[in-house]
Amino acid sequence: MKRRNTDSKKAILELLESSKSALSHDMIQGIISRNIDRATIYRVLNRFCEDKIVRRIVGDDGKQYFAYCINCVEKKQKNNHFHFRCTQCGKVECLNEEVKVALPDGYEMHNFNGIVSGICSDCASLRSGE
Amino acid sequence: MKRRNTDSKKAILELLESSKSALSHDMIQGIISRNIDRATIYRVLNRFCEDKIVRRIVGDDGKQYFAYCINCVEKKQKNNHFHFRCTQCGKVECLNEEVKVALPDGYEMHNFNGIVSGICSDCASLRSGE
DNA sequence: ATTTTATTGCGACATTATCGCAATTAAGGA
DNA sequence: TCCTTAATTGCGATAATGTCGCAATAAAAT
Predict the structure, then answer these.
(1) Which of A51, A85, A118, B72 could join B108 in a cystine, given CB atoms 3.0 to 4.6 angstroms apart?
(2) Nearest nucleotide (C1') to alpha carbon of B62
(3) Which of A62, A102, A104 lies at the smallest CB-CB distance from B58?
(4) Mind telling me which SUPFAM superfamilies this protein's record contains (chains A, B) (predicted)?
(5) Strands, DSSP E only, in B22-129?
(6) In angstroms, how far apart are the furthest CA atoms of chain B?
(7) pTM, to two decimals
(8) Which of B82, B87, B109 sits opposite A118 (nearest CB)?
(9) Chain B nearest CA to A85, separation (Å)
(10) Does B82 touch chain A (CB under 8 A)?
(11) What three-state secondary structure class fits A22?
(12) Residues near chain C (nucleic strand), Cβ < 7 A?
């Protein structure tokens, strides 16, 4: 199935490329000025994931976040790393340190999803009165 | 708030204790013979998590799984480890190897959620004709 | 036995994500 | 440039998971 270059696709990809953190569907919808339908955003994102342009991270809040992840996508290397989700500001960012997981014999890994949640340094310093 | 010892609570806890893998709400509802309301099951499980009797794991399918996790709960040690979710049979099991995550300065970790999904050895061997 | 209040069951609700289908529109060829 | 094809979109409906309010129930203590 050939991909087409639509405005929605371009807008979402640009947004993800320029964003330092992973974005959820509603973050994307909130940021983007064009009015793109909810279902379309999901479909565009799912296509990106199929094409391995973007990584899908499932948060410990059960929501999906999408990240361009230069490190892991462009280099096409399997650089498994954690993401940190701040429960205060909602930001989901890469923790660059690589993580290795050893599976028992006969197990096949298809997806890695490592999430740590808590308070990011920005929110922590705001809270303590900075 | 004092806890009471109800039949639902006992049944669910026994099930989790005797189960080798983490269970989702619908697994629990499917296994348990007594007819317990969906909301009740969730509430019992949430209480267990509050009391740190049970650990909540959020799968990369976005669903919550609950595990008694002898290693991490009884010993009250923070033994962060991954869980493996088989996308074929649905089983979610502990990978015992401990994982350490280094956070940047000023970050606070409140929750660790490491999931690897793929095919477990049982399903893999079935598939290849065993 | 009576009181207190944690717990349950039921239904409604919230949220996240997907799907079917008709209408658009990008891309390639005439 | 116009036409054709089929990928994509928008809309509404739907699925799935989880929570909440409230009245009824029942565990625990007096």
Answers:
(1) A118
(2) D17
(3) A62
(4) Winged helix' DNA-binding domain
(5) 23-24, 55-58, 64-67, 81-86, 92-98, 108-119
(6) 54
(7) 0.93
(8) B109
(9) 9
(10) yes
(11) strand
(12) A 4-7, 24-26, 38-39, 42, 46, 62-64; B 1-4, 6-9, 35-37, 39-40, 43-44, 47, 62
Helices A38-50, A7-18: axis angle to 10 degrees equals: 70
B62 strand D contact, CB < 7 Å: yes
Domain A7-127 has CATH 1.20.120.140: no
Gap from A7 CA to chain B (nearest CA, Å): 29
B67 half-sphere exposure, CB direction, 13 A CA radius: 23
| Minimal C-alpha gap between B129 and chain A (Å) | 14
Burial class (CB in 10 A: 0-12, 13-18, 19+), B57: buried
DSSP state of A47: H
Amino acid at B16: L
Residue B7 φ then ψ, to 5°: -65, -40
Task: Tell me the pLDDT tens digit for each residue of A90-126.
Answer: 999 999 888 889 999 999 999 999 999 999 999 999 8
B41's tokens:
């099951």
Tokens of A17: 């490329």
- For B121, the closest of A60, A105, A110 (CB atoms) is A105
Confidence tier at A36 by pLDDT (50, 70, 90): very high
Confidence band, pLDDT 50/70/90 cuts, at residue A33? confident
Distance from CA(B35) to C1'(C12), angstroms, rounded: 21
B69-120: per-residue pLDDT in tens?
665 555 555 678 999 999 999 999 999 888 889 999 999 999 999 999 999 9
Whether B114 and A130 have beta carbons less than 8 Å apart is answered as no
